[in-house]
Amino acid sequence: MKNIALSSVTALLLLSSFGCSEKGGDTKEETPKVSEPLMEKAKSAGLLPIPEKFVEKVGNELNDAKIELGKKLYFEPRISKSNLISCNTCHNLATGGVDGVSAAIGHGWTANPHHLNSPTVYNAVFADRQFWDGRDPDLEKQAQGPILAGPEMASTVEIVVDTIKSMPEYLIDFKNAFGSSEVTYEKATMAIGAFERTLVTPSRFDTYIQGDSTAMTGVEKEGLEIFIDKGCTSCHNGVALGGSMQLFPAIGEFKYANLGDFKGNAGGMVKTPTLRNILETAPYFHNGATFDISETVKIMGETQLGIKLSDDEVSKIVAFFGALEGEKPEVTYPVLPASTSTTPKPDVN
Ligand code: HEC
Ligand code: HEC
Description:
This protein is mostly helical. The protein has helices at 8-18, 37-44, 64-74, 87-90, 139-142, 144-148, 157-165, 168-178, 185-196, 204-209, 218-229, 293-305, 311-322, and strands spanning 105-106, 110-111, 245-247, 269-271. It contains 13 helices and four strands. Strand 1 and strand 2 form a beta hairpin.
């Protein structure tokens, strides 16, 4: 059977668009390009496909060595005070780039003091700002925060630099990535940012708006149309279907507002989360208040648009979210260099 050779995304697409009914004739080799008005409508509403090239930061140009080093440091628990916590602890690449708990838990089993939920790192590169209050402009700057934060990795710049420097393999990695084996905290976080820039997940939705009408099912398309018509795209737009700072709650009351004390930035604005892979990243909201995606969508209608969505509309929007499930980049778990006599010892207190 020909289908086996196709990528999993295409295979999924064939399954979902043709259901279980037996189908005569050959599977087409060519991707059918049948334009539908909804494709244009989605683009006019500001929805964009994932670009073909990784998005780079000026001053932190991507190269394979840097991305590989960034991956090692992303999985490196020894840069945390306890030697137990890495970026991947809370942004687990096997589980949608999140930890699945309402409030993140870090050093010494400490929950985030503001009851903040870990956002996904997948597609975070497409956001205008980083963090729920948008305080950092990009991934490189963002990565400097959690390593030193008490409730997260509770480390110090000295521990990070000394740990990396204590293992000769890392010095070679730095030389290959940056042209010099000098280890600085900033370079370590630049490498992590470079790696995160590769964590993008193209989905059937992307294939669809690029002109393949068979990439989404009928009900998913209906959901997309409702998503646009109701006004969700006024905030959930761009490549991320999110990523900009918006008022929250904008119109109606948020019934879980008192879980934690986060109220947005100084102007009450909150970073709009990406909706890519949203079915994998429960719980939802800045405080992880809900696990149920349908309830979450209903709340959005009330707080952001002042409307009551019907169960049918909600279920179609949720069906559309299925088309946003992306293909994850293959990340081979790195083998990290062995500690040496000068590697700082773990401190779990
Ligand atoms: C203890 C759990 C924890 C660890 C460890 C952790 N993070 Fe986070 N991360 C969070 C939480 C919680 C937030 C949201 C905090 C806020 O907005 O103030 C966050 C926010 C982020 C964001 C912003 C995403 C967005 O959509 O705004 C990125 C990117 C990120 N972390 C990457 C990293 C990297 C890289 C590391 C390792 C250097 C790391 N995190 C370590 C919990 C963690
Ligand atoms: C006025 C801007 C705005 C509009 C309109 C809007 N949203 Fe949101 N959405 C946000 C913001 C901001 C958040 C994050 C709120 C928070 O957690 O504090 C959010 C959160 C979400 C979440 C949870 C994401 C997560 O990872 O926690 C979902 C799902 C969602 N929106 C779907 C929708 C849908 C569906 C619609 C249309 C019915 C919609 N939104 C309309 C701004 C908006």
